[in-house]
Known about the structure:
The protein has helices at 7-22, 26-29, 33-48, 58-61, 66-91. It is an all-alpha fold. It is elongated and about 45 Å long.
Amino acid sequence: MENVHGPLVKRTEACHTLFTKCLSNKLLMRDGWIENRCADFSLWASGIGGFKPGHASLDYRLRNRQDIQDVINDLLEELQARLEQCWQYCESPESTT
């Protein structure tokens, strides 16, 4: 049975969830910065199959290229970590609005 939600889809969805979460922060919304980055990410992910299940997914399309899967996974993992740090910083009492 085919894995509908492979690791790249899951990582892409996690990053998108964090981008969406960051949209609620006034500090990050200043000058539309996070909104623009979220739109950039969504366009990239949609175009590459990052949200798609099954044979249209990025995981499936790269099923024979573990080296490329690893690079993309590492980049998404780093983006996820930076988004989490950004969110935590902006939500901390020390941040200024």
